[in-house]
Amino acid sequence: MPVESSSSSSAAARQSKQKRKSHSLSIRRTNSTEQERSGLHRELIDAQDSKLPVSMRSNLLDLFSQIEREFESLYIENLELRREIETLNDRLAADGQTIEGSDLAKGALKTKASHSTSQLSQKLKTTYKASTSKIVSSFKATTSRADCQLLREFVGHRDGIWDVSITKTQPVVMGTASADHTALLWSIETGKSLLKYLGHQGSVNSIKFHPTEQIALTASGDQTAHIWRFMVQLPTPQPLSDTTQTSCEEDADFSDKDEADGEAEGPTDCPCVRVPISTLRSHQGVVIAADWLVGGRQVVTASWDRAANLYDVETSELVHSLTGHDQELSHCCTHPTQRLVVTSSRDTTFRLWDFRDPSIHSVNVFQGHTDTVTSAVFTVGDNVVSGSDDRTVKVWDLKNMRSPMATIRTDSAVNRISVSMNQKIIALPHDNRQVRLFDMSGVRLARLPRTNRQGHRRMVCCSAWCEDSAPCNLFTCGFDRQAIGWSINIPALLQDK
Q1: HEC string for the chain
Q2: What is this structure's pTM?
Q3: Are 227 and 219 within 8 A, CB to CB?
């Protein structure tokens, strides 16, 4: 036994001595190679034809030599570590354990890869969950849940139609505001023009009717808003089938053509109004929208000068200037029963102005869109529906402004929306010529027909509901210079939901 122990210790000593000897030899080789390299570098400096100074070239070569020596030392250390790993593996194998360094590395890499894969999978799920839900939601209602029929086409404007509105008094007529500097009143039953307003010097961007009298309010690009009175006499109604057939034929003849100006000769025979009863002047930019406050004694206007103005109708005086938006305003709307105003803007927000208390005028800011808020409208109760160029429509509760009650995602920018007070249906006009219907919870009900023979051929700018029992209960207008009257029939079961 003592003999064996002495022999083993001597063997270990020899092994360590050999290691030290090999290490010293490697150092000697390194030193010798360094001398050879320095000589070689000098030869290269002398032999190469370079524009660099000799001293700079020598410094560069010295730096490269130092880098090479660093890598060489790292390589030697790596070799020594590998030898130690092999020695440890030999000892573990002698003890009955077969764990190799390579297997350990593979196991660690496998665990790390599995962890990374799970993280990536979770990240992908989180990131694209919303996108997937968008795609799925767009296919939820592939079949229409409503009966939608085109009944009337109102053709007569010489340029695109920005806005459409329905009177709240008898007789019920439709009004359109156009970029051709005119506003027209139409018979819903016959599709014929009844009256033309010619008082503006710029594009007519909005039209709204007084709640109890035959008075109209129009906003224009000439930086003014006009209040003017109208009197109309409805013509004898014509059969719907004949008018529909004629309009379809005209649509087929002039589809996607700008030469349809000949159709605009019809309204020349209708009466004209050229002078308003009141002109509202305070804005320094385009007046993009206007609306009546409840009672009809005051009106609000929205302008590209980033302000909304509140006027007294009787005196035409400015009562309040509503400022706070960072960019141009795009729309304004008033509550049907309360003194509330909502203004939307290109600054991606819309604001709620409260005039119910004469001594306190509060304002609340709604932030939820990522692009221009094209319109925000009130519904029955304490809800506001907003549409945006970010291709979403959101339903808000006035008592909770932090997050919307429902979000509708679409595939195109949304223009001036409208909500049916009776049926609680949201009509969405789009840039891509489509018009879609949703309920207040965000469920898609229908898409209005659009073919070569019916529907809009350009961007749809606005929609308006008619709560009267007229055959057409939804109206849309677009930049194809026409307005369309639709019959929308929603089953009672869906309305209850």
Answers
A1: CHHHHHHHHHHHHHHHHHHHHHHHHHHHHHHHHHHHHHHHHHHHHHHCCCCCCHHHHHHHHHHHHHHHHHHHHHHHHHHHHHHHHHHHHHHHHHCCCCCCHHHHHHHHHHHHHHHHHHHHHHHHHHHHHHHHHHHHHHCCCCCCCCEEEEEEEEECCCCCEEEEEECCCCCCEEEEEECCCCEEEEECCCCCEEEEECCCCCCEEEEEECCCCCEEEEEECCCEEEEEECCCCCCCCCCHHHHHHHHHHHHHHCCCCCCHHHHHHHHHHCCEECCCCEEEECCCCCEEEEEECCCCCEEEEEECCCEEEEEECCCCCEEEEEECCCCCEEEEEECCCCCEEEEEECCCEEEEEEEEECCEEEEEEEECCCCCEEEEEECCCCEEEEEECCCEEEEEECCECCCCCEEEECCCCECECEECCCCCEEEEEECCCCEEEEECCCCEEEECCCCCCCCCCCCEEEEEECCCCCCCCEEEEECCCEEEEEEEECCHHHHHC
A2: 0.67
A3: no
Give the highest mean pLDDT range of 11-25, 121-135, 167-181, 239-253: 167-181
Residue type at 256?
A: D
Instruction: Provide the residue type at 421 as one letter.
Output: M
CB atoms within 10 A of CB 417: 25
Q: How confident is the model at residue 133 (pLDDT cuts 50, 70, 90)?
A: very low
**Tokens found for residue 351:** 């604001």
The pLDDT of residue 65 is above 50? yes
Q: What pLDDT shows up at residue 66?
A: 86
**What percentage of the chain reaches a pLDDT higher than 70?**
72
Residue 429 burial (CB count, 10 A): 30
| pLDDT tens digits along 50-63 | 777 888 888 888 88
* Buried/exposed code over 269-284 (b: 16+ C-beta within 10 A; e: otherwise): ebeebeebebebebbe
Residue showing tokens 């320094």: 284
Confidence at 218, pLDDT banded by 50, 70, 90: very high
| pLDDT greater than 50 at residue 248 | no
Asked if 241 and 197 touch (Cβ cutoff 8 Å), the reply is no
The predicted structure's pLDDT at residue 328: 97
Residue identified by tokens 């003194």 is 339
Instruction: Give me the sheet containing 460-465, strands edge to edge.
Output: 147-155, 482-489, 474-478, 460-465
